[in-house]
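batch job 7 of whatever, protein = NAD dependent epimerase/dehydratase
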Amino acid sequence: MATKLGHGLRTALQSPIIAVLGVVSLAQPLLEATGLLAAPAPPEEDLRGKRVLVTGATAGIGLATAARLARMGAEVVVTGRDEARLAAAVQTVAGGRGRVTGEVLDLCALASVRACAARLGAFDVVVLNAGTNANVPTAEHADLPGCSLVFGVNFVAQWLLLKLLDLRPGARVVCLSSVSHHSADAATFGTLGADYAESKLAMILLARAISRGDFGAGLLGVAVNPGAVDSHIWRHVWFPASALFAGFSRLAFLSSDEGSATSVFAAAAPAARLPRTDDGLPAYLAPFWQPPRGPGRSAFEYLSVFAGARPAFARLPRDERAAADRLWAACARLVGAI
Ligand SMILES: NC(=O)c1ccc[n+]([C@@H]2O[C@H](COP(=O)([O-])OP(=O)(O)OC[C@H]3O[C@@H](n4cnc5c(N)ncnc54)[C@H](OP(=O)(O)O)[C@@H]3O)[C@@H](O)[C@H]2O)c1
């Protein structure tokens, strides 16, 4: 409750900054179209010999991420819950240099998660990208009693997938977070009260725990905010506002390809090039320019000048390690035997 109130106050204070940044974001595509500004792209790495998994790759950022990683030569496995959309995604991604296969994975069903993990084999890179923001506060995940649908799909089911996967030595795990994590309340993790924001904070805690060695020695986790991206995820915006919103997002938000830039950098950059925080763990990354410090800096994570993957400020719970331990315990209780 206190966290939500704090977020409400912060948002009110940041609103003027966000409004100005919205205008800046509208100007950027114009500057790019006239050649005055170049859109940044992640550097091309040679990923031949690497095996990569991208969840939720049938649309949006996941599809664009898979396509870019395949162009860099990786063998890419894309997942989706709908066979027809999955087949179409494999076709789209198959234009790259690397081999591409599709695997059915429905994060609403734990049996699907377990069956998918059993078929998958070993990976060098896993991008936990799948997500929904259909925030119906009362909707419960069918296989996770007492846990919200959104938190279950966005986090718990992908936590289970990760626990079941075979990760090669030195493997990298990219965890899709969001600016929304700033309003999360870690006390509600794993319950019906946990929604999109909590699922995205959980992704940051997961990435940091992976890098600390909690999921196996030598692994690296990187949390990313892809930025405000014009994708299907916004289809749940309330109807009367939806047409207006769709127009604004088409003009001011990043395209899915631009939105994949941060995930691709996190997945493909050599470990030595990943920015680190003071504690030595890989930094939370976002694609927008942001002042290095100051109370308003998280406003720049909503919308700002698209500048490519760069370290951003993650709002961690004060008792991060204890909150993470409570989260793993809640996940273990919800999924049962692993
Ligand atoms: N777009 C943004 O502005 C934004 C900002 C911050 C963070 N993000 C994060 O970026 C990630 C990608 O989002 P996006 O914008 O690319 O959204 P999107 O276009 O809606 O794509 C989401 C992907 O997740 C899949 N998915 C959703 N529910 C699933 C389920 N129950 N089981 C299996 N797959 C499921 C979708 O599959 P279907 O095609 O079957 O629905 C789709 O492939 C998400 O984690 C999101 O939270 C996005």
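notes: The chain is about 40% helix and 15% strand.
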